[in-house]
């Protein structure tokens, strides 16, 4: 399994203001689903930040997203470890397959792969 990117998720009710603020640092909007917006650096596209209200299909808002090349393998490894699954593995309508797991410090990690 290979990690493709890691993105911090900032929970915010001030999405427009956040886009403007991070724009001051050179970030540009690359995705916006209404409830989650991702900003990226044009010169280094893997440098990203997501700003979101509440997650559309999960019971909690994740703190961090980790994109992997094989989300099913990641799920099997995490499940085998006994870590707490916060949101089950599922396909989402916006083209990702994902699950949420709680890390040892209590942070919720969104582990995903693009279909």
TrEMBL record:
Residues 2-114 form the VOC domain. This is Glyoxalase. It comes from Kitasatospora albolonga. It holds the Pfam family Glyoxalase. InterPro entries: Glyas_Bleomycin-R_OHBP_Dase, Glyas_Fos-R_dOase_dom, VOC_core.
């Amino acid at each position: 399994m290979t990690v493709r990117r890691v993105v911090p998720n900032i929970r915010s009710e001030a999405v427009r203001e956040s886009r403007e603020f991070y724009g001051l640092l050179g970030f540009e909007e690359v995705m916006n689903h209404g409830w989650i917006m991702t900003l990226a650096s044009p010169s280094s596209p893997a440098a990203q930040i997501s700003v979101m209200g509440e997650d559309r299909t999960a019971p909690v808002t994740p703190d961090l997203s980790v994109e992997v090349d094989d989300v099913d393998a990641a799920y099997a490894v995490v499940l085998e470890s006994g870590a707490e699954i916060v949101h089950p593995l599922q396909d989402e309508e916006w083209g990702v397959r994902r699950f949420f797991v709680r890390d040892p410090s209590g942070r919720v990690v969104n582990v995903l792969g693009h279909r």
